[in-house]
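note to self: dont lose this again. the chain is below, predicted strucutre after it. 551 aa total, dont forget to put it in the shared folder this time
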Amino acid sequence: MSGAATTSTHGGRLVAESLKGAGVEVVFTLSGGHVMGIYDGCLDVGIDVIDVRHEQAAVHAADAWARLHPGVPGVAILTAGPGVTDGVTGVANAWRANSPILVIGGQGPFGNLRRGSLQEMDHVAVMRPITKWADACWHTARIPEYVEQAVRTALSGVPGPAFLEIPMDVLHAPVERVAIPEFRDVRVAHTAPATLVQRAADAIASARTPVVMAGTSLKWSEGGPALQRFVEATRIPCLTNGMARGLLPMSHPQFLSSARKEALAGADLVVLAGTPLDFRMRYGAAIPERAAIVQLDLDESLIGQNRPATVGLAGNLGANLDAIREVLVGRGVDASAWTATLRASEDAAAAALAAQLTSDEVPIDPLRLCAEIAAVVDADDSMIVIGDGGDIVAQASKVIRVPSRGTWMDPGPLGTLGVGMPFAIAAQRAFPDRRVLIVYGDGSFGLNGFEFDTAVRFGLPIVGVVGNDAAWGQMMRPQAMLYGRERLVATRLAPTRYDRVVEALGGHGEHVTKPGDIRPALQRALASGKPALVNVEIRQDVDGMKGSTYV
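---
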């Protein structure tokens, strides 16, 4: 998009026009005087402004928006000083999740730089280690240029956050209109060289027990359809982690979840499709030393990290999977028997959980709660499900299947608690006709639960369900194991009525103590038309055993 050149405007309007040109429909913020000019510009160009109750939530919401809109950045606008520092955790989470967001931060007047203005600090230095690009714009007429560079950097290559600081006198100054840069798609679209594609295909064709491990970079490559074509052509079993969860339908015959340990241990070749060899893969040790590795990722610098790859292919992961598949045509690759072996292991694992999934005990078994949530999710094939917690989300991931047209979101490898409602606000605003459900731990609810106020103000009928064991359960168990039950400290919570908190904010609340009441409560919450919370008292497990209700 380009602008004309005569009418006077101000810097905030230039920011808004530049964001509009990049496809931005909504920005997330907490009101601040340093950045108010941007709000004014957004009103002029038709960008919605959603104001939250904590800047961390604004950045988390921007993160979720980017995940749900490939090729468009999520945008958070933060006022200076504590506004920017409050957003740091959200930026760090997006950094580890490779989420392309733009955070615009305010600053005291450039004319008073280093004189001690209100909330003045070196924001760029704070943000530089956790962003792909961090800079300040000191000339009003150059604002569009800086916005374009920030967006381009956030979206290109391996995606990630960008931070742009604009001092308030620069932002609010009058200026003659300037051209708004034309934004173009800068996402990776190329494939690896044909020789590497051939080597990868040869390695796969010679494998007897191959496994595909799909991860976040496949999502940023929009490679879900290519993944499905690849596993259907080869019958290779597929595991997912990170943002790849749901890219291959969980009902697909090649999809595996609970047999991950057996699949990796028995593999003689692993196709790493965007899965980094980080802590989740034991830095590469989860793959046997004898196994070959065909590694696909967006950037060459990610190939061979922590463990050498047999063959490495950089570029768009979907395009590279398609290229390998085409070379394999007619070579008789068929891992059906290996998949069937792993499927039997999956079925055995499901049978072992059956008693807990149907348990009628009180306090409620956490897996019974997860089974009831799963039944509600299964009834809606477009639901967006968000995990925000420790133990309860780990349990839920064993049971809840991502709907066929739906989405699963969680914080990613930084493991940040408190993403639930901010993610949900972005998701419900983006898709008003779809249902959004948050699976909460009671600990995580305390971080950004007050964003239910935001959902009420904006009429977003998000539903949360809290597994309430009155503890930081994921920390309580190892603490009890290492030091003894009598030495528990900093891991207890109260059995708080979070449902009443949400009611007080104007939402709908449900309190559940019996397993048979879970599903009706969830159905009432979904039917209420309001932001709603179902607070479920579950069993507290200490040192890996069934414990009392509350220690």
